[in-house]
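Task 17 of the worksheet. Students: predict the tertiary structure of the chain below and write it out as structure tokens. Keep your answer in the requested format; marks are given for formatting as well as content.
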Amino acid sequence: MVFEVIPAVDMKGGKCVQLVQGVPGSEIVSLDDPVEAALDWVRKGAKTLHLVDLDGAIEGERKNARIIEKIVNACREKGVRIQVGGGIRSFEDAASLLELGISRVILGTAALQNPELVKRLSNVFGCESVTVALDAKNGKISIKGWTEECSQTPVEMGKKFEELGAGSLLFTNIDTEGLMQGVNPVPTKELVDSVNIPVIASGGVSSLQDLQVLKKTGAAGVVVGSALYTGRFTLEAAIETIRHE
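Model answer:
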């Protein structure tokens, strides 16, 4: 993977939203049309989109599946890669998305509760199609829409899922997520250095400098949400900054 900036399209209640640290009701952005939001990022240069069904992440059932399907269909002819997470709890859930044409399914809670799911999906669809989300708070993994904390660390789980066939990891630092107060590159670099598969970073990006900091960790890319939606910087500026870094 070449380091890239990946816009987030988080969906809740049929809208495109940005939450503070994933807390329901903390919306700092709420747009009525997620499909148009996604296509706008594509028009501005996005090569990959990060779609999350927040209702699915919290409730375990993919509530925004129809919207995601519309986005995938709209982007198919544009050559845009799409990664999807949130509420994917079974092999059937993941398989239906991959058969729809997305590039990567992102497994969080399901992977941690049923690690063999990662192995099965990797065997059937190829490791490149499987990303495991490692969301961490205070250095420990969180699951179920960040409502439950586990005892394992991202490094421990990263090594485990690499062995099981995950093709990449998505690391979100909940301590900085949605606050737009800057990134902490240390945990991202620790994870990058502990595995041999790509790590995509997420959480806390608030400036173009943050993108440069994360690129230097060796991460393969960064998911950006609030900073883009609130105009801290444009996607075009972000792409240009990374290109010259």
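Marker's comment: The first strand starts at residue 4 and ends at 12. The CA atoms of residues 9 and 37 lie 7 Å apart.
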